[in-house]
Amino acid sequence: MISASKLYRLSICPGSEALPQVTREDDPVSREGTVIHEYLANAFGGVETEPLALVPFDYRDRCAAIDLDALDLPYKNTFVETAFAYRPDTEQSRIVGNRILRKYKLTPGEIGCTADMYHIVKPQQVRIVEVKTGQNVGPAYDNLQLRMQALCIAKAHQLTEPVRAEIAYLQSDGSWEFDKTEFTQAALPEIADQIREIVAAVHLEQTRPLSPNVVEGSHCKYCPAFAHCPAKRSLAVAMATELALPTITDLVRREDAGRIYERLKSYDEIAERVKKVIYEMAREEAIPLPSGKSLMEVAQTRETVDGAIALEVLQTKYGSAVACKAVQPTTSKAALDRVLGKESKSALALIDAAGGINRKTYLMVKER
Ligand code: SF4
Description:
Layout: H1 7-12, H2 28-44, H3 60-64, E1 79-87, E2 92-98, E3 111-122, E4 125-132, H4 144-156, E5 163-170, E6 176-183, H5 188-206, H6 230-242, H7 248-251, H8 254-284, E7 287-288, E8 294-295, H9 307-318, H10 320-326, H11 333-340, H12 344-353
Parallel strand pairs: 4-5
Antiparallel strand pairs: 1-2, 1-3, 3-4, 5-6, 7-8
Helix pairs in contact: 4-5, 9-10, 11-12
The structure holds iron/sulfur cluster.
The site of iron/sulfur cluster has 16 residues, from helix 6.
């Protein structure tokens, strides 16, 4: 099903929608994103239970550190995870439901769109907040997902004022960075045209008698058609051939380094996916390896020492001096936030002034 979140990829590779789709649910990054979105939907959607209590234990610290107030959304009157059905041919939009987990009931000719959060600022004016927990998705005004949300909301609520919209990027310390924009009424027909063109291109690829045309790029990273993509399959074959080159230095000449680097990233993606399939097989039954070993599921126990209990035991047996040397107290920004709430920033400043924050700068190679 074509939806707002797919539009960017489909605008470059409409053929991807014509291939079989496999959704990845085991990716820890996607899992964290889903948990954070659920937490925000509970926080602003007015659930009776304390929203943090509904967060799986492993993600509590991460969610507790989120500065909710900075989103400037009403705690009870925010529309959360609102699903729309949009018809590109008639430019009509209707609300399908809230928090329906993308289980849209669409009629033929409709496509789906879910808005993370929005609220009515004043009669005829809406403010949309699209939350991102991962990488930057480019300027808000050009973002197709946000554009379609603005169009759907404007049509469904019959707005006459510009739609305010922003992408809120969650930072590792729970603060936000915002990219704010506005879609005027005059921009809406342009957005409608853009969506119509993408949908038409997808239909063209879906009706091709042979394999669809595909276009590779950074948009491939989360493509659900990756496993069935003809370009990626050719790449896998090329990888096997190129890996047979005599030495690594044959691969790495400065003039080729950029191209090879991008290529290696694609190989990594393929290798990760293939590894996952092999791990699944190994979980079912051990796989003998050419080295003579076997790849199999094994139980591993990791031990950690409870600091409070260790301190008590060591104090009793060896005295406080030894115990304090052996047990180092630690804390984190998330823990301070959890206990002190809004006070945590000034507490951190005091700790910093007392020399209690260690900063280490590392040199690393990364894309910028
Ligand atoms: S993986 Fe293949 S089908 Fe998917 S976006 Fe990339 S090129 Fe298109």
